[in-house]
Amino acid sequence: MAREIAPLLASTSTILDVGCGNGYIAHHLKALLNCSVTGIDVVQTSAAGIPYIPYDGRHFPIKDESIDAMLLCYVLHHARDLNLVISEMRRVLKVGGTVVIYEDTPRLKWDRVVCWFHNLQWKSKTGNCSFHREHEWRRIFTVAGFEVVQQRTLSRWRNLAHPVSRTFFVLKNNDASESSVSVRSNVDLAALDEAYGVS
């Protein structure tokens, strides 16, 4: 994953890995780019040797508009308050900044079964998981003010222990308007589906 992400980012980037887990993606990315990478997660420590800050799962412990690029690798479906996480992404990212996102995007009945088991495994730690389809994530990002500059379906066999359809997104934070951030901060999936004619 680090080799996949590295070509998208400048070596001068200040990168934030949100929900970094063991920190090894950030660790390898730092080695590839020789850039500044900080990890944040709800656990107290990270196994990899990267700058790491524990956080409360709500507000990123990062200054406004201080980050050039952000990674969220299979993190957003764990967010207890998705609107707040997206608002925090907008807050800390510089104008023109890049967001790289990997997400499980169940399409088939098999995918939904895998995600159901994943939710069972994690709900006692992070709360219920919230999985969305590719077009739903795209609308969430667009309504929040991000430009989706790349979207690619990934093989479910990338992780044999978790064989589910997944999607790779690259977003740009091109909108500097504070008013647009506040208007777009509350994403209502039901309302979006109704507006787009999706049941």
Tell me what the CATH architecture is: 3-Layer(aba) Sandwich
Number of strands: 7
Low-confidence stretches: 178-185, 192-199
N to C succession of SSEs: HEHEEEHEHHEEHH
Main sheet summary: 7 strands, mixed
- CATH 4th-level superfamily: Vaccinia Virus protein VP39
What is the secondary structure topology, with strand pairs?
Elements: H1 2-5, E1 14-18, H2 24-33, E2 36-41, E3 52-54, E4 67-73, H3 82-92, E5 93-104, H4 109-126, H5 134-143, E6 147-154, E7 166-173, H6 178-184, H7 189-196
Parallel strand pairs: 1-2, 1-4, 2-3, 4-5
Antiparallel strand pairs: 5-7, 6-7
Features:
single chain; alpha/beta; Rossmann fold; 25% strand; disordered C terminus
Tell me what the structure shows.
Mean pLDDT is 88; it is low at 178-185 and 192-199. This protein has helices spanning 2-5, 24-33, 82-92, 109-126, 134-143, 178-184, 189-196, and strands spanning 14-18, 36-41, 52-54, 67-73, 93-104, 147-154, 166-173. The longest helix has 18 residues, at 109-126. It is an alpha/beta fold. The chain contains seven helices and seven strands. A seven-stranded mixed beta sheet has the order 3-2-1-4-5-7-6, sandwiched between helices.
What does this entry show, briefly?
With 199 residues, the protein is α/β, with parallel strands linked by helices.
